[in-house]
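To close the section, here is one more complete example, presented without commentary so you can practise reading it yourself. The ligand is pyrroloquinoline quinone.
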Amino acid sequence: PVVANEDLIKMTQDSKQWAIQTGDYANTRFSKLNQITKDNASKLQPVWTFSTGVLRGHEGGPLVIGDVMYVHTPFPNNVFALDLNNDGKILWKYEPKQDPTVIPVMCCDTVYRGLAYADGKIFLHQADTTLVALDAKTGAVAWSVKNGDPKKGETNTATVMPVKDKVLVGISGGEFGVRGHVTAYDMKTGKQAWRAYSTGPDSEMLVDPEKTTHLGKPIGKDSSLKTWQGEQWKVGGSTTWGWYSYDPESNLVYYGTANPSTWNPKQRPGDNRWSMTIMARDADTGMARWFYQMTPHDEWDYDGVNEMILVDQEIGGRPRKLLVHFDRNGLAYTLDRTNGELLVAEKYDPAVNWVSKVDMDKNSPTYGRPQVVSQFSTEQQGEDTNTKHVCPAALGTKDQQPAAFSPRTGLFYVPTNHVCMDYEPFRVNYTAGQPYVGAILSMFPPQGETNMGNFIAWDARTGKIAWTNKEPFSVWSGALTTAGDVVFYGTLEGYLKAVDAQTGKELYKFKTPSGIIGNVTTYEHGGRQYIAVLSGVGGWAGIGLAAGLMGEQGAGAWQTAVNPGREETGNRAIETAGLGAVGGYAALSNYTTLGGTLTVFALPTQ
Ligand SMILES: O=C(O)c1cc(C(=O)O)c2c(n1)C(=O)C(=O)c1cc(C(=O)O)[nH]c1-2
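Output:
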């Protein structure tokens, strides 16, 4: 057996540090720190700031390891080690040289969801898929390896997941027909240990047709190949650009796969397995234990990559080991994480309309499948037909912005999008390294409403919303919850907000220099609790600002680059640029502008 990385597990249990992007292996984003409480949070103040020098979208957050904070930037993926004993003085920086031609191959801004730490090293997975191990003390390169090829559309935005003696990484490029995979590299040397594809032959997917299960049944031989026409799985997307969780007890890693390519469902008949799937794999070998495909034969771009939150709660009086997942498709799933049994699947936004419900009858032939409402089926409405008012929009009821869980309230705190879309699929041909999208989109709030976001509290045992805070825009920032019964999140206009975990009541807000799409973190240093967040507007929702697509010229350039032969013109060009985000989030430019800044908050000292 491999020696467990006890070190990192211990560090994630020490709330003074923030040792992994997800807060802990279970992805709860809960901190035991309790100096800041719901009774004093109104007194919070910004106490220090740091400019990253980079303008585009800043996702993820800083790590705190001992007395050092590690801050990353989007492309070009600079890394700063800051001395917390010396007002954030720069101890070292690492500035990788990357070919800028990777920028137009990134679908949804040049974001990076943050660094990882293990074994005295900082792990950086660059936009161009170079994975680098840096000495945490000096910034010297220990090793580096290439995980993909941007010339084929392969890029990276996800963080690295260190598990035991390996680091696990995903790949982006679903909008370029990239075939998704997860790859494990040896932590000490960078040598590849295993790679598990999301689609294709059993041997390349690391599945056992008899032992790997789907809803309790063996997946059988060639389970992926049988659900694609011909060799479409080779350019069928199902990338792995989201968050990873790990359960040391079972040694299973959990993550989700993204949309099948193209976005035109008529072009790829079949269930397109295993796109849109929650996967549980053995961390040492990569062998799959169980799968659950949430959206077979996707018709809306509802990537299944959002975080899997591992919690132990009682359901029906019985303690269960749960996996809770807020999917892009608008359904929140509660599963038994040991075997993939489906326990709860409910809408976490009442606006969701493409699905009536998930079939929960174990004896039904459609068990576990969403029941699609034909009016909102982009396949049934047909190619070159604009299917109107589908909710949620392609960016989902939630996208990459991770939720948090408090064991004190038993509730999940979920940053959400409250956005609908019109979706017109059209025929595209595959060319390596070129956009392979095949749909024209526009986005807007649900009919009769104006708010494009909600921040909600969710009970995963019952599948019910506990409370909702309306937000003018999608909440694209990851939540944090603490033992002080406070929940923190950022908004696209740039506010850092603290709310009461029980009621959602707003306790504090502060407008940072730019829109927030980063994840809120906390740490303790010198006996004081700090709250840290990166601002810097961007991501898919903020792509209009981040990539300069707002005006006619910017939108026009986007149309030629992404929709060649199917360019929209005039107002419609602006409305549909950035796959609908430019029009949908146009009003954001009234509130904020670009710029990467770290802002750190604390209570005043007496
Ligand atoms: O299919 C893919 O490979 C892929 C990659 C990414 C990415 O790497 O950021 C996003 C998406 N898809 C996507 O569908 C999406 O909504 C999205 C939002 C964001 C973001 O950071 O704001 N990235 C991505």
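Once you have examined the tokens, check your reading against these statements. The chain has a mean pLDDT of 97. The pocket of pyrroloquinoline quinone is lined by residues 59, 107-109, 111, 157, 172-175, 237, 239, 241, 258-259, 303, 395, 399-400, 539-540 (CB under 6 Å).
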